[in-house]
Amino acid sequence: MDLGIAGKWALVCGASKGLGFGCAEALLREGVNVVVVARGAEALEAAARQLMADPARPAPAAVQHVAADITTAHGREQVFALRRDWDIVVTNAGGPPPGDFRDWDREAWIRAVDANMLTPIELIKATVDGMAARGFGRIVNITSSAVKAPIDILGLSNGARSGLTGFVAGLARSSKLASANVTINNLLPGAYDTDRLRGTMIGASQKSGKPLEEVMAARRQTIPAKRFGTPAEFGATCAFLCSQQAGYITGQNVLTDGGAYPGTY
User: Fold this and answer.
1) Rounded to the nearest 5°, which phi and psi values hold at 229?
2) What backbone phi and psi angles, to 5 degrees, belong to 139?
3) Which of 91, 111, 238, 259 is most exposed by smallest CB count within 10 Å?
């Protein structure tokens, strides 16, 4: 299927690895010009080289990268100094650490809300009016399946990402945006084969005293698909939400978790 977005410009955050990289790769393969952003310059440069060398990349599709912390005002200024008009924006920032809410002070909450709620809102605010004026825009926020089924040790993420979800639910249904072919959706990953998942599994292994592979195998068994997702298939879902064909999908929370969520709705 031709997604009809070749030649568009996409900003993909947190794209040096994992799910962000998967999204950038899928968009690039559709002929989208991608600007990838992440904090670590070395990893980001390696990711940009990998994207440029992708044999599935259409020749005209460009790859640019900006090493910046998108969760800061300065980082966003660095990105917008490169380009101000975007057709596609994929917001993504590393989730806050797990733990017991009794141990989190006000600063921990502010950091979580700043990165996982306010940063996406700032990026949306900076881009949606231009999208509406041009008659096309796609914003995809990478959040978490914990928004749908909260996880007790991820209270910081549960709270901050749920705040973003509530904000998007209202904004996406604004007739000014929806009627101008601007959509805003949230993409909720379950357990994907990423460094973050492995880090969580290492922590569980250390806490339980069980070998890492045993912990990971047990986690897989809780998923009906009996496996972890891949960044590539997550990216493909993101690319579809950015497509011309997805213009009638907005304000939605798209859960991709291998069937792990047990509810009907």
Assistant:
1) -75, 165
2) -120, 130
3) 259
Q: What is the span of the domain harbouring residue 218?
A: 193-228
Among the listed residues 59, 57, 66, the one whose alpha carbon sits nearest the alpha carbon of residue 16: 66
- Looking at residue 150, what is its pLDDT? 87
Amino acid at site 59:
A
pTM above 0.85, yes or no: yes
150 and 179 part of one domain: yes
> Of 87, 27, 79, 35, whose CA–CA distance to 54 is shortest?
27
Give dist(CA 89, CA 130) in Å, integer.
Answer: 12
Q: What is the pLDDT of residue 203?
A: 84
Q: What is the pLDDT of residue 104?
A: 93
Q: Which residue has the tokens 């292994």?
A: 205
Q: Structural domain tally of the chain?
A: 2
* Same domain, yes or no: 153 and 183: yes
Reported as a single tens digit per residue, the pLDDT across 146-202 is 899 888 888 999 999 999 999 999 999 999 999 999 999 999 999 999 988 888 889
Residue numbers of the chain with a pLDDT score lower than 70: none
User: In 3-state terms, what secondary structure has residue 236?
Assistant: helix
Is 264 within a domain?
no
What is the C-alpha to C-alpha distance for residues 259 and 206, in angstroms, rounded to an integer? 28
